[in-house]
């Protein structure tokens, strides 16, 4: 296995565990169970039915999914969910849909929802530059909303909600694309959550949607079948050809979490240790490493920061690359540096990076 993967801090698609990459390499040649390449396996085969069933079972166990929530493996990424949720649950409704806009990704969702109905932005971080998240009493929520939508982790700015915003009686929807499976989450508060795979769950190509059965039954009629959650649920994610390879990879990631890591509490402890190392390093040299997020909103998955000048940022990125660290460029909308600490990034890798960053600070500080 190429060592470079161990030092991949990319914002997405993110790093995958070495043991998963090894199994995928073998699966492309021949799956242990069938002797055939995973890329040539029928999605109607008993083998793939077992893959879907085990992936669902593992996710239910890891996330403690409430019994009345359905799991769907869809395509179209996080972005299609920005449209699909309002198509199903806002179109034709009178109440507004409430949206919290706290950064780059959560700002995209209401643009799509506004094509389907009445949208209210109940808090907007953009005038302040998206360095923090709202306190519960800052939200002006509508009691009659069709739903409330937010993103639990802003991948670009590196902001992560520490509490769950909610309004009694209003269904809660959440984009968890960049932090699902990084720590336990109490899904009992939610009615619909979604996460594409390529940040923390597997490769690009599959998007996990978990939604309440009762809510799903209220979906808009006459939608194209592929955009109607009910068709996917009836077909148990086999309405049309699903991304077999991506779902198989996701299954391997769930096995890794269960069997090698020991579940989400153990994963969360590892992620806490990584975040402590990284933010400790930023806080040790605040004149050089200027964290984007206010401390109260710091994400354990993505840390964005700037350096005092474009020249220093360029030197940081070039020297980091020469030292073997990958994927540290900030998102194109923000610039600067971003260190992503997805599940597959080890404590050891973060220690190597922070040791190197401390050295950079000594040379340039
Ligand atoms: C990356 C990201 C998206 C975009 O997902 P696509 O699969 O590229 O459509 C949406 N939401 C969040 C929080 C993200 O991090």
Given as residue ranges, the uncertain stretches (5+ residues, pLDDT < 50) are none
Name the bound molecules: pyridoxal-5'-phosphate
Structural class: alpha/beta
Please tell me how large the radius of gyration is: 21 Å
* CATH topology (fold) name of the largest domain: Aspartate Aminotransferase, domain 2
CATH superfamily of the largest domain: Type I PLP-dependent aspartate aminotransferase-like (Major domain)
Q: What is the total domain count?
A: 2
* Backbone shape: globular
Tell me about the biggest sheet?
A: 7 strands, mixed
CATH class of the largest domain: Alpha Beta
**Count of distinct strands:** 12
Helix content: 25-40%
- Please give the count of helices: 10
Strand percentage lies at: 5-15%
Query: What pattern of helices and strands is seen along the backbone?
Result: HHEHEHEEEEEEEHHHHEEHEH
| Main sheet strand line-up | 1-9-8-7-4-2-3
**Average pLDDT score:** 97
Q: How does CATH name the architecture of the largest domain?
A: 3-Layer(aba) Sandwich
> How far apart, in Å, are the first and last alpha carbons?
36 Å
């Amino acid at each position: 296995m190429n060592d470079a993967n161990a030092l991949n801090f990319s914002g997405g698609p993110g790093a995958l565990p070495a043991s998963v990459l090894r199994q995928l390499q073998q699966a492309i040649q021949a799956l242990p169970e069938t002797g055939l390449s995973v890329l040539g396996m029928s999605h109607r085969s008993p083998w793939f039915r077992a893959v879907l069933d085990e992936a669902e079972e593992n996710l239910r166990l890891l996330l403690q999914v409430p019994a009345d929530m359905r799991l769907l493996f869809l395509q179209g990424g996080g972005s299609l969910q920005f449209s699909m949720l309002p198509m199903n649950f806002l179109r034709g409704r009178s109440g507004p849909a409430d949206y919290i806009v706290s950064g780059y990704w959560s700002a995209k969702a209401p643009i799509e929802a506004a094509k389907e109905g009445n949208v209210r932005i109940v808090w907007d971080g953009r005038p302040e530059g998206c360095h923090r998240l709202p306190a519960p009493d800052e939200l002006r929520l509508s009691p009659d909303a069709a739903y409330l939508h937010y993103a639990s982790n802003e991948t670009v700015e590196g902001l992560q909600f520490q509490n769950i915003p909610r309004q009694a009686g209003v269904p809660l929807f959440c984009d968890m694309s960049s932090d699902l499976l990084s720590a336990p989450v109490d899904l009992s508060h939610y009615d619909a959550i979604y996460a594409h795979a390529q940040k923390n769950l597997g490769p690009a190509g599959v998007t996990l949607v978990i939604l309440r059965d009762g809510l799903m039954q209220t979906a808009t009629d006459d939608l194209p079948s592929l955009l109607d959650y009910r068709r996917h649920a009836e077909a148990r994610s086999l309405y049309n050809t699903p991304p077999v390879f991506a779902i198989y990879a996701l299954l391997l990631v769930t096995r890794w979490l269960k069997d090698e890591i020991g579940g989400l509490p153990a994963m969360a402890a590892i992620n806490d240790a990584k975040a402590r190392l990284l933010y400790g390093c930023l806080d040790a040299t605040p004149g050089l490493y200027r964290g984007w997020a206010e401390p109260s909103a710091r994400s354990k998955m993505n840390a964005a920061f700037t350096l005092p000048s474009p020249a220093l940022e360029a030197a940081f990125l070039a020297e980091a690359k020469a030292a073997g660290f990958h994927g540290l460029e900030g998102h194109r909308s923000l610039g600067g540096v971003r260190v992503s600490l997805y599940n597959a990034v080890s404590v050891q890798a973060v220690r190597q990076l922070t040791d190197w960053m401390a050295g950079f600070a000594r040379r340039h500080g």
